[in-house]
Amino acid sequence: MSTYRKIFPQKKPYETFQEFYPYYLNEHKKEATRQFHYIGTTLSLVYFLTKPILSIPMLAGGLAAYSIIPFARHLSTGLVEVILFLTIYLTGGKLLTNSLIKTCIPLLIGYGFSWVGHFAFELNKPASFIYPTYSFFGDVRMMYDAMKGCNFSF
């Protein structure tokens, strides 16, 4: 056992995205939930295509959040990942677009639709509250799998 794991016991059971993804799919059993995710993700991607400069802080924030996953596994929530991502994304987006509103729009669209799916149809708490970075990856992967014709049977 590594020294890190002795100091910080692991509260989050999924160490890798590959381990997390089956759990993510299980949290999206209902087709309506997945459809709301697809709508939110698609609209956010379209928005990013109209404001490509926002991809710079998005990637920077995402990479920073991803890089701290091993160090935040002992925490019960994904708050540290979210704070790091939002600090980088919102600061960079505001500096590059000169508008905090334009910077927030894709987040509000993407998470808004996704969370409606969870709270109205799936009746569960979004995995992004605990695993925000892996949940974003899961959303993209689930959409990719759907476009490939993957049958989500539960």
From TrEMBL:
In Swiss-Prot or TrEMBL terms, this protein is called DUF962 domain-containing protein
Q: Keyword Transmembrane: yes or no? A: yes
Keyword annotations of the record: Membrane, Transmembrane, Transmembrane helix
Q: Which InterPro entries match?
A: Mpo1-like (IPR009305)
State which residue ranges cross the membrane: 45-69, 75-92, 104-121
For this UniProt entry, which residues form the secretion signal? Answer: none
